[in-house]
Write a structure and sequence with these properties.
The chain has about 260 residues and is an alpha/beta fold. The protein is about 45% helix and about 15% strand. The protein is globular. The two termini are about 25 Å apart. About 55% of the residues are buried. The structure holds D-glutamic acid.
Length: about 260
C-alpha cells in the first residue's frame, strides 16, 4: 500500500505529471526517474525508446514500485504495450489515453491540434486514441523539435520560446483547432508562450490532470492507495542532474537534496 509510484520521462518534463499526481494524491510517495543521459528522445528510433523504457521500468520495479506512470508521450506512444507485457505484476499507465479524453472533452467538436516531439507526432498515437473516442474529430499534429532543448536548458520563458510557440501554433490555428494538446510532458513549462501564441479562444489541454485521475482510479480499484505515512520522494537520473535538482526542489516545495545517478 505504501510502496512508491514510479514516474519516468526522458528528462524534466515528467515532473509536470508528477506534480499533478501529488496534488491529487498527496498520500502517495513518488520515485522519479529522468533519463537525462538520453534526452531528448524526440528524434530517436522507436526501438531505442522501447529499450530505454524497459530498462527504466526494470529499475523502478527493483525499487519496489506498486505502479508506474509513463510520463513521456513518446514512450507512451511506442513502448507502453511492451512494458505492460513485460511487467504484468504491476499496473502501468501512459499519458496519451488520458490526454485524448481531456482533449475530446475540451474541443467541442472543433479540430484538435497536437503539439509533440517528432517521434510522438510520427507515431500517430493521438490520432488513434482520439479516433477511438470520436472518429468524427479531425486531429492535426505538429512536431516541435525546438521545445524540449529550450526547457532542458532553462529557457522556458525566453523570447526564443515565444517565437517557437508562434511558429508551431500557427498551422493549428489555420486548421481552426478549438483545443491544443500539450503532447509532450515538457510543454506545460512553455504553457504561457503557447497560450499567448494560440490566443484565449483556444483551450490548452495538459494530459497530466487526467493521467493523475486515471492513476487514482487504478490505485482505488486494486486497493493499493497509500495512507500518507513516510511520504518521501526520491529522484534518480541517468545523466546530468543539475536541472532536476532545481526543478525537483521547486516541485516538492523544498530542497530535494540529492539526485542519485543510475546508469540504465
Ligand atoms: N517529455 C517527453 C514526451 O512527453 C519526451 C521529450 C523528449 O525527450 O524528446 O514526449
Amino acid at each position: 500500500m505504501n510502496s512508491p509510484i514510479g514516474v519516468f520521462d526522458s528528462g524534466l518534463g515528467g515532473l509536470s505529471v508528477a506534480s499533478r499526481i501529488l496534488q491529487l494524491l498527496p498520500n502517495e510517495r513518488i520515485i522519479y526517474f529522468a533519463d537525462t543521459a538520453h534526452v531528448p528522445y524526440g528524434e530517436r528510433s522507436f526501438d531505442e525508446i522501447r529499450k530505454f523504457s524497459r530498462n527504466i521500468v526494470d529499475f523502478l520495479v527493483s525499487k519496489g514500485v506498486k505502479a508506474v506512470v509513463v510520463a513521456c508521450n513518446l514512450s507512451s506512444a511506442v513502448a507502453l504495450d511492451t512494458v505492460a507485457q513485460a511487467f504484468r505484476q504491476i499496473p502501468i499507465i501512459g499519458v496519451i489515453k488520458p490526454g485524448s479524453k481531456a482533449a475530446v472533452a475540451a474541443a467541442n467538436g472543433y479540430p484538435i491540434g497536437v503539439l509533440g516531439t517528432t517521434g510522438a507526432i510520427k507515431s500517430g498515437a493521438y490520432e488513434s486514441a482520439i479516433a477511438e473516442l470520436d472518429p468524427s474529430i479531425k486531429v492535426v499534429g505538429q512536431a516541435c523539435p525546438k521545445f524540449v532543448p529550450l526547457v532542458e536548458s532553462g529557457k522556458s520563458d525566453s523570447d526564443e520560446a515565444l517565437a517557437a510557440a508562434y511558429e508551431y501554433v500557427a498551422p493549428l490555428l489555420a486548421e481552426g483547432c478549438g483545443a491544443i494538446v500539450l503532447g509532450c510532458t515538457h510543454y506545460p513549462f512553455l504553457r504561457k508562450s503557447i497560450q499567448t501564441a494560440a490566443g484565449l479562444d483556444v483551450t490548452i489541454v495538459d494530459p497530466a490532470q487526467e493521467t493523475a485521475i486515471a492513476l487514482g482510479n487504478i490505485l482505488m480499484k486494486y486497493n493499493i492507495e497509500g495512507d500518507g505515512a513516510d511520504v518521501v520522494h526520491e529522484f534518480y537520473a541517468s545523466g546530468d542532474w543539475a536541472g532536476l535538482v532545481a526543478f525537483g526542489s521547486k516541485f516538492v516545495g523544498r530542497d530535494i537534496g540529492s539526485v542519485t545517478r543510475v546508469s540504465i
